Amino acid sequence: MSRWIVTGLLTVALIITGVWGYNQYLENQDHAIRSNNLYKKSFYELVGRVDNIESGLSKAMISGDQGQSIVMLSDVWRQADSASTNLGQLPLSHISLNKTSKFLSQLSDYCRYLTIKAGEGRPLTLEEMKNLKELKNSSIRLNNELKDLESRVNKGEVTWKELRDMSNESLEEASQDLISKQFTKIEETSIEYPTLIYDGPFSETLLRPQKLRVAGKKIDYKAAERIAIDFLGRDRVKSAEQGPETQGDIETWGVNLETEDGEGPFFVAVSKVGGKVVSLICEGAVQGSSMDYKEAEKVAGKFLEDKGYRNMVPTYGQHNDGMAVFNFAYEDGDYIVYPDLIKVKVSLATGNPIGFEALNYLMAHKERDLKEPKLSLEDARKLVNRNLEITSERLAVIPGKSGNEIECFEFKGNFDNDSFIIYINADTGKEEDILRILDTDNGTMVI
């Protein structure tokens, strides 16, 4: 009798195990399908946006109407910004996409600057038209490569899941697959760009050090999901599900969040090592504007403090379409440290933080031994062109072109109705950089 009972219990256990295993299989299949669909969506959106960029640049170059130029340049700016996000969501960790990423970032920044300039009634110069032509030629080359890849992917020769599964292999091992080959070819394509505009001094991503500074243990997706929910606010989150595992300088888990208040949805990227939130992106539209720009800046600063980012000071910001974006840099004693940069986006309609990007900070932040400058402030001031009417001065750490960091004196001032920032090396007295400040109705930009 006992044998039959044991046999029956074992049978029930096997059935339960089988049902559980089958459910896990279905769940994994469902997750794989969703991830593959998200990768496909990001890729096809990237292709579409680059196509729109090429078309928009062509139209902007031949438009003789100031209003039309504003519309076209503004559209290119937003398309390039979104294309950069799409690129970062693809499972391409074994491929360095620095050139492509830099091109899209600079294109977005430059067209934003030209949009504001056109909005002030100032025509484009011959040099700016030349820059647009270079950018258009590069976008044509990028578009052709992406279109070629699109047509071949449509034939089903490779899936994004296969590429994700091989994303930890070396480039040489993975280079036989179609998508890897094509993106490698894109990186090797001659993408040319002029020296353009940035949305704050030294925010350009390729200037950051390449040594990874995120430390800690590896985390699984469930831990990343908890971190993402806590970051947005547990009381706000209605549901969470796994999103694409974004690639790049820092490998991340992706978490999609729906909110109780309907704002969003949000995508959160959490580093697989250390469990740091790398970015928070609001994928919903922002309607209306009820908060003052300065109030939004305070909200952004408090948000960073609440998340454990101390001694962060606002440097530059922009606001448009119901949103305000602020750059914050780390303050270390008397120095403002520009490589340790964090961006925060605030909805002017709800007053909620809806965007966060800490890649530069996570890549660059470290304990620094900032010594007393060899030059005195008075001596450094004498090295600044006497035509500049100095309005403020302080110490700063800026990134050098080779990825090193340079301790400088930062002098802000005015000359001939324009504002400038001049950086004098605190040890050698060399003039390291000059930036021009543009104060607009939408905030501050730096060239």
Could you explain the architecture of this structure?
The protein is of the alpha+beta class and 447 residues long. The protein has 3 domains: 22-197, no CATH class; 221-364, no CATH class; 377-446, Nuclear Transport Factor 2, Chain: A (Roll), CATH 3.10.450. 43% of the residues lie in helices and 24% in strands. The protein has 11 helices and 13 strands. It has helices at 2-62, 66-88, 98-119, 126-153, 160-165, 171-174, 178-188, 221-232, 293-306, 359-364, 377-382; strands at residues 237-243, 252-259, 266-271, 277-282, 312-320, 323-332, 335-347, 353-357, 389-399, 405-415, 418-425, 431-440, 443-446. Strands 1, 2, 3, 4, 5, 6, 7, 8, 9, 10, 11, 12 and 13 form a 13-stranded mixed sheet that branches. A hairpin with a 5-residue loop joins strand 11 (418-425) and strand 12 (431-440). Helix 1 runs antiparallel to helix 4 and helix 2 packs antiparallel against helix 3 (98-119). It is globular. Residues 167-176, 190-199 and 204-210 have low confidence and may be disordered.
List the keywords:
11 helices; 13-stranded mixed beta sheet; globular; alpha+beta; 13 strands; 447 residues; 3 domains; Nuclear Transport Factor 2, Chain: A
